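User: Hey, my collaborator sent me this sequence without any context and asked if I could get a structure. I don't really work with proteins. Can you help?
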Amino acid sequence: MAIVVVGTVFVDIKGFPEDLYIPGGRNAGSVQIVHGGVGRNVAEDIANVELRPVFVSMVDDTAEGGEVLRKLRNHRVNTDYVVTTPDGMGMWLAVFDETGDVVGSISKRPKMDALVQLLDEKGDEIFSRADSIVIEIDLDKEVVKRVLKYAKKYGKKVYAVVANMSIASQRRDFLKDIDCFVCNVQEAGILFVSDYSDYTPMQLCETLSQNLANAEFPSMIVTMGSRGAVYADKHGERGVYPASTVIV
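Assistant: No problem. I've predicted the 3D structure and written it out in structure-token form, which is a compact way to encode the shape of the chain:
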């Protein structure tokens, strides 16, 4: 059995000027291509702690899509359920100025049709053997519906992460069916229409517990950067986990 991660792959293309950035002009500099996507990142992170996740996703039918798969396999991520299809990956194209600020960007979300088809054809095979499920809650609604259906059918716990909180905040019915939703403090503020930036971990912990009871969300973990993370559920259980110093 393994943790099944359902999410997207993004490729970030970032341009950095060598000198003063000139809008509309030619700028010498460097271009970086970085593999991202919340689901892809989570699958890789799980593999890095010596677990063997199953990644359910899509990649483009291009050389870059093949490179994404190669790197995931090198991390020992199971990619048997990653579909190769046109427009299977998202892309973020960004240009930065000399100070490191973004001066222009274009984002393309992947098309989800192939992922919906995969879940219809192999959902029982994928989820019946899962230990638990991690999903990007802001995926296409049809994808989320199918994952939750299989989770209920096979009695699997579902943990949700997020890429676009503006979309996720409109998925409150889905969040009621998630065992635990994980986000950062800014995203929690968007979800509950509040500003928690000045809250201490204990203050956020108490507020979060009340909000979950009112919203009927089972539980949440909210990360607070160097201040650690807080946990709460709708039954009043809550706690604070301090940040740990790690060597990167």
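In plain terms: The first strand starts at residue 2 and ends at 6. You can pass these tokens on to your collaborator as they are.
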